[in-house]
């Protein structure tokens, strides 16, 4: 049943052996030491300050959607940094290994990375940035903001929400451990058949890649179900579909995509696993396998996934432009329709990732036209944002700057996307760095929207604003880095440079590559500015306290409750009367009216089951990677047993009495009154 | 204030909920579970797409095809076992309507026995293939055939575990909101297996037998 | 929560079960599967026509099961399930249909095989 392995295997340890630890690698070994020292330091500090109980009770076992969202965002930021370091390494190799006379160190003929190591780095960069940085960051914001924006106390399934987080964390841990135990896939982030087959990739790298992506896919599907059910079933009274904040609409359309498309990824990867573990012939060369079937199945998910990450970013921008233009959003209905149209069309365009497969003129033209159709709803959105700002009273704080930056990048990325939608052009630039520059521009739209949201919603979650000086410094450094890295990349694409080169043969390209290297150094400075931003803001937090309506011009429902948001969100659920409820209340002078009496609130209990399930899933993934069958069986059994245990135990929840609510509300109002003085 | 798209008078507007608005726990649970089932359906759709691409003549690489090893009447017996199991579960749910505990338990027990029968027939079929030397490693076409049918069988297997758990919960906890909600979600899960099976039976077994 | 105090077995989604519905769903789909199996084993119909007939059997069996077993209709308690299903069905068709189309075109352009060009 199981395939024969070329290398060693034993029943106890599977494929795991000391030789799999890269202690002789001059890059990984010092990093490993640094990670171990860092981990000991962090754990030691937690123990020293006696924070374990706090950590366990308040964070690790929480089912509060805001805390889970914050943890999603923390995972996302850590992985964003890891992905950035991968990018830095790729750029450095390409700036170094140019021409036959370039030097080589650490066993590489040119540059400092061997081709196999370089392959692992660009594969990890892609997987991490899309699935473990962008996705958790966006899911984090959806988690925090959506329930408050629709006037709910929590998600529809708080426990499932925690489970989704810990599955994502397990996936992150799995990809991180691949640095130090074994290796990672070298087949690009989306994989190519048949290079990921056991015959051509006998190591464990591809297995790490498969199970990491499977775990993220599972976590995101569960999260998607939760958010959809929350939006459809948990809206406050009066929150009709026409009054739903635009970010909620964007989240809704994005999660429809997540729910429908992630199963395709799970199948594509499971079939690779069937090939590698059971010797099946889905994607093999010969014996009836079909190489392009994999590419097809992957992009059935892959293209909708692109819109899964961009639609929430559009939603964030649609919240930020009106707030800092002091005008309602222009064209609310068209904005909603455009989101839904993008979600719909996203299902009809996936072949444009492999026009060069050669399916012929009919297929290529159909998918080309469908791809160009995406430009219509996206154009509608761009014009709506422009008209929102038109004749508005603009405030150029940093959130607004990031949002405007995203708008510019969207224009560049969108227009180059239109070029790529033409099969004739696509054949010319397929797999060139022009394509890489295009999709990085689009993903930077998301990054810009995320940083805009960090600044915009930070005061809502923590109760104080971020420091404007450092935020602006970071924005301008980041933007300079973007220009320096990606403008030369577009040029190199036109000059014919292909992607994923571990050695650049053409010395004419060297100056451009050096400019890009300089650009990535500027990005590094913006990372430092971000650290400074957090440090300075937390140090001075007492000076930057805010009330419920942190910006004074906010519009949607999340700004009605206190900042930071109490764990029950609203003491009494609001009754919604208008589309921009907070703006409507403010304009009518009723924004400070408080409920006249409080009632008991029913809340779910914390649970340690979710984090334990996450841990067991990590063990299962690790055992599958190393083919330790007894551990697979054991962890799977433990997962099933724990799920059954939880279903017997249930959660009756607990009651916060009206008196307690009143006390907490009085305290929050007293604090707000102090700030406004 | 037309810019807010509201025609509510702010002077008389109700600002805070006074209607003791509560969510319907059971409906929220069943709707979320139904969405999960649809995404599970998408999983099968993708598998069917793969099967479609891998069921050309060349996909079998000159080796055995489903026409050589599918026995329609045998699989029809499997079909009847699954359909009867679904029917039994449905009748159990009808007993739930009348708060008839023994009726629910009998329905679940019958569904369990018939489900086990379905799975036993499937396992017997697979061991028969193995005895002919046919496995996932035979060819791309056979890989697609076996994986698609066995993914369905895996669903049935986990459904059987779930039925056992629910029998225990009905006996120990009675008809609480949580137990009733789970019985409803299990009903959807179990009935969906029959729906998927129609596709598997007609387009994998019967069509494979034809070609 | 609203049903915590009430009896959960009175919930409309419990009350919509009927033995008659389950028997109808079972009978219709069983008869259709029996007919399909009989037609396939008897080789009475030419292959293309047979494919059409058994597809029709499958389609009708699915509709019967979705209606009688999953209770998909436009009543207040099922409307969101129906909306979700209606949104999903085109995607199922797209996934299978477009994949089939692009690969049949691909084989047409890249592989010379007997029996491929109907």
From TrEMBL, chain B:
GO molecular function: cytochrome-c oxidase activity
GO cellular component assignments: plasma membrane
Leader sequence residues: none
Main location (coarse class): membrane
InterPro entries (UniProt xref): Cyt_c/ubiquinol_Oxase_su3, Cyt_c_oxidase-like_su3, Cyt_c_oxidase_su3-like_sf, Cyt_c_oxidase_su3_a-hlx
PROSITE patterns assigned: COX3
UniProt xrefs under Pfam families: COX3
Keywords annotated in UniProt: Cell membrane, Membrane, Transmembrane, Transmembrane helix
Residues annotated as domain Heme-copper oxidase subunit III family profile: 1-209
Membrane found in the keyword field: yes
Any single biological process term in GO: aerobic electron transport chain
Residues spanning the membrane: 33-53, 73-92, 104-123, 129-149, 156-176, 188-208
Recorded superkingdom: Bacteria
PANTHER family xref list: CYTOCHROME BO(3) UBIQUINOL OXIDASE SUBUNIT 3 (PTHR11403:SF2), CYTOCHROME C OXIDASE SUBUNIT III (PTHR11403)
Family: Belongs to the cytochrome c oxidase subunit 3 family.
Protein name: Cytochrome O ubiquinol oxidase
Organism for this UniProt entry: Acidithiobacillus ferrivorans
The organism's taxonomic lineage, starting at the top: Bacteria, Pseudomonadati, Pseudomonadota, Acidithiobacillia, Acidithiobacillales
From TrEMBL, chain C:
Keywords: Membrane, Transmembrane, Transmembrane helix
Residues that span the membrane, as ranges: 20-41, 48-70, 82-103
Origin superkingdom: Bacteria
Annotated protein name in UniProt: Cytochrome O ubiquinol oxidase
Lineage: Bacteria, Pseudomonadati, Pseudomonadota, Acidithiobacillia, Acidithiobacillales
């Amino acid at each position: 049943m199981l395939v024969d392995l070329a290398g060693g295997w034993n029943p106890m340890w599977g494929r795991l052996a000391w030789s799999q630890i890269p202690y002789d690698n001059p890059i990984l070994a010092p990093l490993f030491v640094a990670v171990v020292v860092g981990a000991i330091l962090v754990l030691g500090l937690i123990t020293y300050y006696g924070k374990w109980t706090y950590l366990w009770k308040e964070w690790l076992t929480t089912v509060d959607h805001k805390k889970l969202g914050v943890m999603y965002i923390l995972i996302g930021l850590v992985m964003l940094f890891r992905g950035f370091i991968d990018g830095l390494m790729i750029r450095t190799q390409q700036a170094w290994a140019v021409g036959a006379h370039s030097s080589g160190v650490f066993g590489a003929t040119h540059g400092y990375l061997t081709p196999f190591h370089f392959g692992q780095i660009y594969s990890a960069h892609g997987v991490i940035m899309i699935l473990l940085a962008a996705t958790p960051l966006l899911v984090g914001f959806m988690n925090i903001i959506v329930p408050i924006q629709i006037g709910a106390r929590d998600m529809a399934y708080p426990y499932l929400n925690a489970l989704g987080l810990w599955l994502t964390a397990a996936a992150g841990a799995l990809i991180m451990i691949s640095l130090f135990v074994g290796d990672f896939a070298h087949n690009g982030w989306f994989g190519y058949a048949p290079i990921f087959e056991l015959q051509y990739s006998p190591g464990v790298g591809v297995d790490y890649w498969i199970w990491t992506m499977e775990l993220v896919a599972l976590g995101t599907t569960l999260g998607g179900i939760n958010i959809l059910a929350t939006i459809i079933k948990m809206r406050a009274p009066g929150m009709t579909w026409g009054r739903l904040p635009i970010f909620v609409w964007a989240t809704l359309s994005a999660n429809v995509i997540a729910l429908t498309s992630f199963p395709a990824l799970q199948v594509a990867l499971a079939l690779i696993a069937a090939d590698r573990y059971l010797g099946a012939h889905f994607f093999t060369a010969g014996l009836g396998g079909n190489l392009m079937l994999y590419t097809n199945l992957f992009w059935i998910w892959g293209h909708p996934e692109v819109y899964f990450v961009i639609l929430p970013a559009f939603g964030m921008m649609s919240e930020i432009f009106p707030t800092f233009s002091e005008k309602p959003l222009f064209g609310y209905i068209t904005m909603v329709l455009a989101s839904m149209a993008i979600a719909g069309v996203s299902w009809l365009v996936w072949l444009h990732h492999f026009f060069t497969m050669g399916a012929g003129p009919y297929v290529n033209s159909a998918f080309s036209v469908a791809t160009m159709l995406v430009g219509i709803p996206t154009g509608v959105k761009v014009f709506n944002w422009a008209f929102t700002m038109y004749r508005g009273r603009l405030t150029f704080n940093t959130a607004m700057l990031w949002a405007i930056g995203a708008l510019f990048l969207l224009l560049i990325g969108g227009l180059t996307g239109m070029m790529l939608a033409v099969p004739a052009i696509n054949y010319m630039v397929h797999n060139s760095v022009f394509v890489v520059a295009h999709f990085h521009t689009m993903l930077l739209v998301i990054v810009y929207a995320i940083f805009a949201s960090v600044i915009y919603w930070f005061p809502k979650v923590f109760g104080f604003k971020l420091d404007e000086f450092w935020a602006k410094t970071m924005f301008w450094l980041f933007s300079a880095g973007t220009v320096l890295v990606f403008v030369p990349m577009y040029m190199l694409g036109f000059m014919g440079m292909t992607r994923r080169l571990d050695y650049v043969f053409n010395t004419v390209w060297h100056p451009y590559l050096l400019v890009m290297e300089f650009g990535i150094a500027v990005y590094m400075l913006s990372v430092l500015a971000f650290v400074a931003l957090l440090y300075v803001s937390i140090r001075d937090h007492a000076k930057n306290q805010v009330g419920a309506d942190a910006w004074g011009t906010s519009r949607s429902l999340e700004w009605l409750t206190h900042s930071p948001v109490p764990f029950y969100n609203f003491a009494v659920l609001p009754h919604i009367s208008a589309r921009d409820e907070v703006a409507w209340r403010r304009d009518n002078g009723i924004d400070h009216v408080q409920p006249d009496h409080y009632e008991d609130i029913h809340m779910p209990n914390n649970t340690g089951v979710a984090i334990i399930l996450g841990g067991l899933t990590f063990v299962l993934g690790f055992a599958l990677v190393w083919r330790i069958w007894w551990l697979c069986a054991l962890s799977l059994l433990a997962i099933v047993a724990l799920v059954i245990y939880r279903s017997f135990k249930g959660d009756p929840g607990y009651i916060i009495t009206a008196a307690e609510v009143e006390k907490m509300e009085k305290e929050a109002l007293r604090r707000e009154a102090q700030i406004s003085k | 204030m037309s810019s807010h798209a509201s025609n509510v008078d702010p002077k008389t507007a109700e600002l805070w909920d006074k209607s003791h608005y509560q969510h319907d726990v059971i409906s929220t649970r069943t709707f979320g579970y139904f969405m999960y089932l649809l995404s599970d359906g998408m999983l099968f759709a993708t598998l069917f797409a793969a099967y479609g691409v891998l069921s050309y003549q060349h996909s079998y690489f000159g080796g055995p095809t489903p026409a050589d090893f599918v026995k329609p009447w045998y699989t029809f017996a499997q079909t009847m076992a699954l359909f009867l199991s679904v029917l039994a579960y449905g009748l159990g749910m009808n007993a739930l309507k009348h708060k008839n505990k023994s009726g629910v338990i009998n329905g679940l027990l019958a569904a369990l026995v018939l489900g086990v029968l379905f799975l036993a027939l499937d396992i017997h079929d697979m061991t028969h293939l193995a005895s002919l030397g046919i496995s996932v490693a035979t060819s791309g076409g056979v890989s697609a055939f076996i994986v698609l049918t066995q993914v369905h069988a895996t669903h049935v297997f986990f459904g059987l575990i779930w039925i056992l758990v629910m029998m225990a919960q009905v006996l120990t906890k009675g008809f609480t909101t949580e137990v009733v909600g789970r019985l409803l979600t299990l009903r959807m899960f179990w009935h969906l297996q029959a729906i998927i099976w129609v596709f598997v039976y007609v387009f994998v077994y019967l069509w494979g037998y034809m070609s | 929560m609203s049903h915590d105090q009430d009896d959960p077995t009175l919930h409309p989604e419990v009350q919509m079960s009927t033995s008659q519905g389950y028997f109808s769903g079972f009978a219709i789909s069983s008869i259709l599967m029996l007919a399909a199996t009989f037609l396939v084993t008897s080789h009475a119909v030419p292959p293309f026509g047979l494919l059409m007939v058994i597809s029709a059997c499958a389609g009708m069996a699915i509709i019967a099961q979705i209606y009688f077993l999953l209770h998909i209709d436009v009543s207040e308690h099922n409307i969101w399930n129906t909306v979700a299903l209606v949104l999903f069905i085109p995607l199922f068709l797209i996934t299978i249909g477009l994949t089939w189309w692009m690969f049949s075109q691909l084989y047409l352009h890249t592989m010379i095989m007997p029996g491929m060009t109907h």
